[in-house]
Known about the structure:
This is Glucose 1-dehydrogenase. The protein is an alpha/beta fold. It has helices at about 15-25, 40-50, 60-75, 100-125, 150-170, 185-190, 195-205, 220-225, and strands at about 5-10, 30-35, 50-55, 75-80, 130-135, 175-180, 235-240.
Amino acid sequence: MSEPRIVLITGGAGGIGRGIATAFRDAGDRVVVADVDADAARATADELGVAHLALDITDAEAAARAAEALEAEYGPVGVLVNNAGILSVHGALTELEPGAYRSIVDVNIVGTFTITQAVARRMIANGTRGAIVNISSIGGRQPTPGMGAYESSKAAVDSLTRWAAIELAGHGIRVNAVAPGPVLTPMLRMGMPEGSPAREAWSSRIPLGKLAEVEEVAPAVVFLASEGAAHITGVSLAVDGGQLLT
């Protein structure tokens, strides 16, 4: 049996992050849940029996300090899951305020870059042949009116995945992404309850006929970080029930 790895999950207090943290914990890894909301990170960690960290991924200095502090306390980070992101900015191209667009770019793109850079530097310094998995979205490839700010940021995450993969491959560090369609997090369940017109509209776009459960996304992340994916890097794996086929 392989040694447990240190797995850092950003945005770990949210629905998808919590599911990913649970999956890595159950696989025997040592999980650190990071979130900008310190109280939520602590509560999630206490519930799951894992470690936690308050972290603003848009702060480059804080990201560098976090990578060093985790290494000092637990050992080198072996897996980074870039799950942190915001989906709260909506608006048509002709109506969206530039400031609102910048806010989603700052978190979803620059924040992902910042923490990836900090952790990759430590992996290289330690000779860690690690894995990085970014949480993207099929929206980066299939547009939905009003969601262009989020979707274009996720297209950039896919590009960042390929950039990091080609540059870090020589260090034995693999970088991939998981691109879900809509996922039934607690927040989405509240906004689109079972039987609602909105839920039915989304489900009708999916060949498998339903939105993804968190538990159907997390295994893909664990797989891409595993030895079973040792020869896979630079890919963005859709977990969408076939929605990109339509």
